[in-house]
């Protein structure tokens, strides 16, 4: 049988879309000694139809080598390079093909020019499409880590991005359930995350009717991988019941982040927090029943308590590695012992107090030498004692606190540099506040020990401006706006204060 017969039968099968049969016949024709470019081009066409792009490209190269003056090999190579996202090579092959096509072959020229335009667009506008799948997924991961809601936007950019997003389970590990078709969303996220949800949150507006179906979908969750949970108290109880049914209550102790809003009867869940891995805890509307938590939770880095009432000292003593503490709208129960115990929070960097009536319950027990940020939304009108020592802060921050504490009687600023002189200027009125009102009118006891940059004039001014003899007198001889005199002033280890300076201040103060 001659190669021509095999070739003709191959062409006949190709036209009838019998591509596999055609491939066999073209292979046979080449094995019988045919070296014509037309046979290689025909076999390249079959490989292209079958999706064997690399094999088709090899045959197209053979066509170019065999018949370098013909356009066919270049045109087919251009199409294949374009499919393989090698757009630069595709454009080069198109140009070579156009040089060999007859000027009057308008249709073929139009087709190649259209392909060239698409290749130019793909080359200049979609570089990210050339990235390996792993790098593409890593980029998506950074975006979703910053804002989990971005996964929806990423999956709606184009077909390629959507396919990438859906095929990457790690991008779907944060599930926020709200009132908008909650069961459908849980099912979809569980499918795309392959049940490996690490961050699970529930909004408060979910219909009561949806809970049974939601819990049913969650029953197949890989609970051992759950690391963060945000939930209202009533639902926490339901989730706990589900975990008991599944014998998965160990998942609670493995949580690293927990956010619970209102949970009556919390004491019944306490045994499941044994040896807890919690790093972040947020509880709203707490009750004293959470007190049993502190014998089990002692690795916290961030603690936020909002609303309700709590005995704070045991919580602090159990978590002395705290870095961030936020207390809001709480009634703080004082220590039962009433002793001088202190919570040494050497890692505490941020302390925020909002709408706290008894701030002194905190200030009396917390020792935070490395505190960097202190925030208080309301004036500290009941604050009578402020002690700041060996920590990083600014004079402006302390001035804000002092200006909002009209009943302040005791002030300690010790072991600090670059702060004390500005604060004393503010208290003495040398640097007036925005409202131009007197501050610390009840101040009596001041400790400025170990402040290496304390200037004599500021210590002297603090005492002198509060002496009754140096304060304004009305026409009738009264002093209605009189400030309290400084009764005690400690200046230990202040190198800029010479002995005669301290003696001068002593003569003005009752005791130094």
Count of DSSP helices?
A: 20
Oligomeric description of these chains: single chain
**What is the SS-derived class?**
alpha/beta
| Helical proportion, percent range | 40-55%
Could you tell me the mean pLDDT? 85
Label the overall shape.
elongated
Strand content: 5-15%
Number of strands: 16
| Largest sheet report | 10 strands, parallel
Low-confidence stretches: 473-480
Distance between the termini: 121 Å
Radius of gyration: 39 Å
Characterization of the model:
The strands form three sheets. Strands 1, 2, 3, 4, 5, 6, 7, 8, 10 and 12 form a ten-stranded parallel β-sheet that branches. The chain has a four-stranded parallel β-sheet with strand order 13-14-15-16, with no helix packed on it. The protein has a two-stranded parallel ribbon with strand order 9-11. Helix 2 (19-31) packs antiparallel against helix 3. Strand 15 (445-447), helix 19 and strand 16 (488-490) form a beta-alpha-beta unit. The protein has 512 residues and is an alpha/beta fold. The chain is built from 20 helices and 16 strands. The termini are far apart. Mean pLDDT is 85; it is low at 473-480. The protein has helices at residues 3-15, 19-31, 37-49, 53-66, 72-83, 87-100, 106-125, 133-146, 150-154, 159-166, 182-192, 211-218, 233-246, 250-253, 312-318, 360-363, 395-403, 420-428, 456-464, 499-508, and strands spanning 174-177, 199-202, 228-232, 257-261, 280-286, 302-310, 324-328, 331-332, 343-344, 350-354, 366-367, 373-376, 385-389, 410-414, 445-447, 488-490. Helix content is 41%, strand content 14%.
């Amino acid at each position: 049988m001659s190669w021509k017969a095999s070739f003709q039968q191959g062409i006949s099968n190709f036209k009838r879309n019998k591509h596999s049969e055609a491939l066999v016949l073209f292979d046979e024709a080449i094995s019988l000694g045919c070296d014509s470019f037309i046979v290689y081009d025909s076999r390249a066409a079959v490989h292209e139809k079958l999706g064997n792009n690399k094999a088709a490209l090899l045959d197209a190269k053979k066509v170019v080598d065999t018949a370098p003056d013909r356009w066919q090999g270049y045109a087919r190579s251009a199409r294949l390079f374009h499919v393989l996202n090698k757009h630069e090579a595709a454009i080069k092959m198109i140009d070579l093909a156009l040089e060999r096509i007859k000027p009057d072959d308008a249709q073929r020229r139009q087709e190649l020019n259209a392909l060239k335009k698409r290749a130019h667009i793909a080359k200049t506008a979609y570089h990210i499409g050339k990235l390996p799948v792993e790098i593409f997924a890593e980029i998506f991961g950074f975006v979703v880590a910053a804002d989990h809601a971005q996964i929806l936007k990423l999956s709606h950019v184009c077909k390629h991005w959507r396919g990438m997003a859906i095929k990457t389970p790690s991008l779907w590990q944060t599930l926020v359930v709200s009132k908008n078709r909650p069961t459908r969303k849980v099912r979809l996220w569980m499918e795309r995350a392959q049940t490996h949800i690490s961050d699970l949150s529930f909004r408060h507006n979910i219909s009561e009717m949806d809970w049974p179906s939601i819990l049913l979908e969650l029953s197949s969750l890989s609970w051992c991988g759950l690391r963060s949970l945000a939930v209202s108290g009533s639902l926490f109880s339901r989730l706990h019941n589900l975990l008991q049914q599944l014998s998965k209550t160990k998942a609670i102790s493995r949580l690293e982040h927990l956010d619970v809003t209102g949970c009556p009867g919390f004491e019944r869940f306490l045994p499941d927090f044994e040896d807890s891995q919690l790093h972040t805890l947020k509880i709203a509307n707490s009750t004293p029943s959470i007190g049993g938590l502190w014998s089990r939770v002692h690795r916290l880095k961030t603690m936020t308590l909002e609303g309700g009432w709590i005995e704070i000292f045991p919580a602090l003593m159990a978590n002395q590695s705290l870095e961030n503490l936020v207390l809001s709208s709480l009634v703080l129960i004082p220590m039962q012992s009433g002793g001088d115990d202190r919570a040494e929070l050497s890692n505490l960097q941020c302390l925020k107090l909002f709408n706290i009536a008894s701030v002194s319950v905190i200030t009396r027990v917390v020792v935070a030498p490395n505190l960097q940020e202190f925030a208080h939304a309301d004036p500290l009108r009941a604050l009578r004692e402020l002690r700041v020592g060996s920590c990083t802060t600014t004079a402006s921050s302390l001035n804000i606190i002092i200006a909002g504490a009209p009943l302040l009687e005791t002030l300690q600023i010790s072991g600090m540099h670059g702060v004390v002189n500005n604060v004393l200027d503010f208290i003495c009125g040398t640097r007036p506040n925005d409202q131009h009102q007197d501050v610390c009118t009840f101040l009596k006891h001041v400790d400025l020990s170990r402040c290496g940059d304390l200037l004599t004039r500021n210590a002297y001014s603090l005492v002198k401006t509060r002496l009754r003899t140096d304060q304004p007198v009305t026409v009738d001889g009264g002093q209605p706006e009189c400030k309290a005199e400084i009764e005690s002033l400690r200046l230990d280890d202040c190198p800029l204060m010479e002995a005669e300076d301290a003696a001068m201040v002593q003569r003005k103060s009752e005791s130094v």
